[in-house]
Amino acid sequence: xxxxxxxxxxxxxxxxxxxxxxxxxxxxxxVLRSLGVVESxxxxxYKLKPDTVxxxxxxxxxxxVGSFRTNAMGMANGTMIGPEQAAGxxxxxxxxxxxxxxxxxxx
Length: 107
Fold this sequence. Notes:
This protein is mostly beta strands. Helix content is 0%, strand content 47%. It has an 8-stranded antiparallel sheet with strand order 5-4-7-8-1-2-3-6, with no helix packed on it. Strand 7 and strand 8 form a beta hairpin.
C-alpha cells in the first residue's frame, strides 16, 4: 500500500510570543504554528510609525521572512509560511534601519 508510511499532520499548539519595544514606541505579538514540514508565523504590529515599511527577521535569517507597511494608524499584520522560519528570536526592523521590536522565543 502506497499510503502505509503517511501519517496525519498534527497542528501542534500555537505559541504566542510577545514583542517588546527596543525604544519608546511599538508593540506587537507573534503566533507560531508548526504545520508539519513548514511553519506559520502570524505577526501583529501596532503603535509604530504610520505608512512605514517594517521587515520581520526570524532566528539567524540574514534576510527578512516578511515585510509589512503600516497603515495610517501605525498597525500591520500578516502571515508568513515557510520551512523552519521560527528558530530563535523574532526581530522587527524599520526597513533599512534599526530594530524596533524583539522577542526571544520560548523553548
